[in-house]
């Protein structure tokens, strides 16, 4: 049971296309597109947004994202009209990046607040830190990326999912920059490509397990 | 004079006629600064209200207003749907289970409608939106007070018309018009205009 996601857009194509993209990175999350008017055309349809929100809720709550202007109002109004308005939250986030970040967080089992937080923080520049070397208590492994697209969207999402739920703080370094391995957007911002050598560092009770999982993924070319 | 579910339904039918009559005017106002759909959308919403009233007979004033709210939310696109929908919905909640609406209750409902629109749209006075018609309208209604519904609504409509006119000199800060910045100056806001039209229609119906 994961948090559901509703994409409210003025365009049916935009909502559907984004749902398709996000679903590729979060196959078990219910992502419902609520775009366009019921009779076709550009606009937001209140009844459809309400129905989408109900459909997306498997009991863990729903996060709604929107594109422009009145889509936010329609989403807010739909949430207000629910039997339990606290089950859903409308989040102010860039639609595409927010949907991806929210979907991956939901796939990893994050709760509604954390999924909304992942979406909201997608608007900020990806959080990369300067490489400060391996710290005390950290284990690390160096890996060479052999898959075609490197740490692009889908592989990055697969990596985040593989370590979700483990008791370990994991980071990925490329060159002088280090990314939090829980953030799909930060991993993508590293820009690691085929042939690049990355270093994965982990600390915590399940650090070794996390490193093994990431190493296996890289060895298997992320299932590509 | 207090108004009942029947007189409220009649007022909504009158409002629908006024919106239909001004459909083209609202489209033209919106074309200058928006996407030219406000007249079309409002006409579709109020036509749907009339159809809904033809098939249902809500028993309380609150039920009539709530029916208008849900119809507007579903049928009117753009920002106007959720905004007018919220206005009618909040007014309906304020009317509660009263069998008749007297002056003081009407004023409270108007205040609730304004607060709903502001909460939903996050607009304040001077943003060149329907709020610029609603704020002075509610203030005028509060000053008129008393029990004469027609007098209260006439004062509100007069103030709403002046408020709507004031948007001509404003630079829009909300909605699609705000994308135009200074270029949107010199235009009457379509939402403020439709608010003034509705209040005038209600005032005439109450006479």
TrEMBL record, chain A:
GO terms for cellular component: cytoplasm; membrane. The keyword Zinc-finger does not apply. It comes from the Bacteria. It is found in: Cytoplasm. It catalyses: dihydroxyacetone + phosphoenolpyruvate = dihydroxyacetone phosphate + pyruvate. It is an enzyme of class 2 (transferase). Residues 138-224 form the HPr domain. GO terms for molecular function: phosphoenolpyruvate-glycerone phosphotransferase activity. Its EC number is 2.7.1.121. SUPFAM superfamilies: HPr-like, PTS system fructose IIA component-like. Pfam families: EIIA-man, PTS-HPr. GO terms for biological process: glycerol catabolic process; phosphoenolpyruvate-dependent sugar phosphotransferase system. Keywords: Cytoplasm, Phosphotransferase system, Transferase. The keyword Iron does not apply. Residues 2-141 form the PTS EIIA type-4 domain. General (non sugar-specific) component of the phosphoenolpyruvate-dependent sugar phosphotransferase system (sugar PTS). This major carbohydrate active-transport system catalyzes the phosphorylation of incoming sugar substrates concomitantly with their translocation across the cell membrane. The phosphoryl group from phosphoenolpyruvate (PEP) is transferred to the phosphoryl carrier protein HPr by enzyme I. Phospho-HPr then transfers it to the PTS EIIA domain. Component of the dihydroxyacetone kinase complex, which is responsible for the phosphoenolpyruvate (PEP)-dependent phosphorylation of dihydroxyacetone. DhaM serves as the phosphoryl donor. Is phosphorylated by phosphoenolpyruvate in an EI- and HPr-dependent reaction, and a phosphorelay system on histidine residues finally leads to phosphoryl transfer to DhaL and dihydroxyacetone. Homodimer. The dihydroxyacetone kinase complex is composed of a homodimer of DhaM, a homodimer of DhaK and the subunit DhaL. PANTHER family: PEP-DEPENDENT DIHYDROXYACETONE KINASE, PHOSPHORYL DONOR SUBUNIT DHAM (PTHR38594). This is Phosphocarrier protein HPr. The lineage of its organism: Bacteria, Bacillati, Actinomycetota, Actinomycetes, Pseudonocardiales.
Automatic annotation (TrEMBL), chain B:
Its EC number is 2.7.1.-. InterPro entries: DhaK_L_YcgS, DhaL_dom, DhaL_dom_sf, Dihydroxyacetone_Kinase. The keyword Transferase applies. One of its GO terms (molecular function) is glycerone kinase activity. The keyword Transferase applies. Keywords: Kinase, Transferase. GO terms for cellular component: cytosol. GO terms for biological process: glycerol catabolic process. Residues 6-204 form the DhaL domain. NCBIfam families: dha_L_ycgS. This is Dihydroxyacetone kinase-like protein. It comes from Amycolatopsis umgeniensis.
């Amino acid at each position: 049971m994961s948090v559901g996601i509703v994409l409210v857009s003025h365009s049916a194509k935009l909502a559907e296309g984004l749902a398709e993209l996000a679903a590729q990175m979060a196959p078990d999350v219910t992502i419902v597109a609520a775009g366009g008017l019921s009779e076709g055309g550009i606009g937001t349809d209140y009844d459809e947004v309400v129905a989408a929100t109900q459909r997306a809720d498997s009991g863990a709550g729903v996060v709604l994202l929107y594109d422009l202007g009145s889509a936010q109002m329609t989403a807010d109004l739909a949430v207000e009209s629910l039997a339990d308005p606290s089950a859903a939250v409308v989040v102010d986030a860039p639609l595409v990046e927010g949907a991806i970040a929210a979907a991956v967080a939901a796939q990893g089992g994050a709760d509604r607040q954390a999924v909304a937080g992942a979406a909201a923080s997608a608007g900020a520049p990806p959080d990369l830190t300067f490489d400060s070397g391996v710290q005390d208590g950290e284990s690390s492994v160096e890996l060479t990326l052999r898959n075609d697209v490197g740490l692009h969207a889908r592989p990055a999402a697969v990596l985040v999912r593989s370590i979700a739920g483990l008791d370990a703080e994991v980071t990925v370094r490329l060159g002088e920059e280090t990314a939090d391995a829980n953030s799909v957007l930060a991993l993508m911002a590293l820009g690691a490509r085929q042939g690049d050598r990355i270093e994965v560092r982990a600390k915590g009770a399940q650090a070794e397990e996390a490193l093994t999982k990431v190493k296996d993924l890289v060895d298997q070319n992320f299932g590509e | 004079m207090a108004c009942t579910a029947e007189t409220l339904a009649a007022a909504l039918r009158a409002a629908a006629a006024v919106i239909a009559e001004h459909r083209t005017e609202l489209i033209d106002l919106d074309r200058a600064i928006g996407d030219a759909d406000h007249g079309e959308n409002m006409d579709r919403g109020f036509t749907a209200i009339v159809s809904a009233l033809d098939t249902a007979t809500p028993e309380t004033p609150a039920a009539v207003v709530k029916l208008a709210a849900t119809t507007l939310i579903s049928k009117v696109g753009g920002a106007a749907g959720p905004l007018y929908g919220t206005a009618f919905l909040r007014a309906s909640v304020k009317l509660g289970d009263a069998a008749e609406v007297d002056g003081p209750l009407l004023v409270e409902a108007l205040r609730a409608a304004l607060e709903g629109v502001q909460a939903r749209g996050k607009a304040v006075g001077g943003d060149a939106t329907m709020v610029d018609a609603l704020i002075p309208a509610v203030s005028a209604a509060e000053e008129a007070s008393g029990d004469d519904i027609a007098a209260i609504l006439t004062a509100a409509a007069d103030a709403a018309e002046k408020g709507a006119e004031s948007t001509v000199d404003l630079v829009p800060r909300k909605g699609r018009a705000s994308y135009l910045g200074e270029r949107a100056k010199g235009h009457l806001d379509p939402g403020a205009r439709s608010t003034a039209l509705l209040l005038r229609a209600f005032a005439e119906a109450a006479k």
